[in-house]
Amino acid sequence: MHIVVIGAGALGAYFGGRFEEAGAKVTFLVRKKRAEQIQNHGLDIKSTKGDYAIKNPKIVTNASEIDAADLVFLSVKGYHLKGAMDDVKQLVEKGANVLPVLNGIEHVSVLQEQLGRDAVLGGLCFIIATLNNKGHVEHSSAFHNLVFGPLEPAQTTICNQLEELSKQANIKMIHSKAISLELWKKYMYITAFSGITTATNLPIGPICDYKETFYVAEMILQEMKRLANKYEVELTDVDVEKAKKNFMNLNRDATSSMHQDRRKNLTLEVDHLHGGALRLAKAKGLELPFTEAVYGLIKPFENA
Length: 304
Known about the structure:
Layout: E1 2-6, H1 10-21, E2 25-29, H2 32-41, E3 43-47, E4 52-54, E5 58-60, E6 71-74, H3 81-93, E7 97-100, H4 106-115, E8 122-131, E9 137-149, H5 156-166, E10 172-175, H6 179-200, H7 204-209, H8 211-230, H9 237-249, H10 257-263, H11 270-283, H12 289-298
Parallel strand pairs: 1-2, 1-6, 2-5, 3-9, 6-7, 9-10
Antiparallel strand pairs: 3-4, 8-9
Helix pairs in contact: 3-4, 6-8, 6-9, 6-10, 6-12, 8-9, 11-12
């Protein structure tokens, strides 16, 4: 299987490396600056699940350099989706399916409209990782999960191929037959987790210590559950409780990628995540006061 990774940040580089480790052919389609960094320093993974060094990573800066691919692993930030679209289109025209693992929900319909519904799989991941100053991956969480599944019947073959790859991969890959539900569960979780950590500028430990602060995260979970229900996705109070327990079971120093980006003075995905939830809610006549408040608190830090 030939997999093209678009977006070789911590997430894309980690999963791309694990795909290669499992025997897939992997090409990293990156910007010029990132290409130079990888050429100068290599692409290594330091992980709680075992280290891995990608030997002679295949790097390109334009989709025209790729003849064909089976899968595009799309792991850009939400605000880079528009800029990546031309490259993704070129690869889809050459026969690739697309597995987007962006946070949020809005990007799925955008990709389906641009690429055709049959081209776009459902995907999400759970991992805490960052890049160090050499551009190497530092994976610190006990989990590194990739969930994928078909959104259309035509995607059965590529999903089965991914399931075969999962048997050799040093990641937890889950082939879900209810991927839309899984996408909304992740959206609920990440909106609360990234919102509360970024707005308070704190990791999860101190947030859990104060019931008044943790209450805000709980209310965002409840609001996102109600939003999913408006879109006929059956998130329940059980799902909310599971998300709360996941927060409390994290390492005290654990935090979200958005909070990590705030710490580094990088652009934040707040409009893609929280802004997207507010747009979806407005379309259904639903108010999300806690989500809106956290959105307002993070907004001044959105653009580095």
